[in-house]
Design a protein that fits this description.
single chain; alpha+beta
């Protein structure tokens, strides 16, 4: 099982954790609402977990340009 983090705004691969056995509490997933979990977390048939997060570049762009929050996807 691997955990893959991708930016929800630009699709960039933020990073992966391979061959780990972790509980959702250690990832903080238990703090998400059911709606947030549906939107941000997906599972593949081989047991991998894909988590949508935000990369540093998109976070910085959103801080500089708050009107970008209205867009689902950013290109940088």
């Amino acid at each position: 099982m691997a955990i893959h983090y991708h930016c929800r705004h630009c699709g960039t691969n933020i990073g992966s954790l391979d061959r780990l056995s972790v509980h959702s509490e250690s990832l903080g997933l238990h703090k998400l609402t059911e709606e947030e979990r549906q939107e941000m977390v997906s599972y593949t048939g081989n047991g991998d977990i894909h988590i949508k997060s935000i990369c540093e570049d998109c976070q910085e762009a959103l801080e500089r340009n708050p009107d970008f929050h209205q867009h689902d996807y950013l290109i940088h």
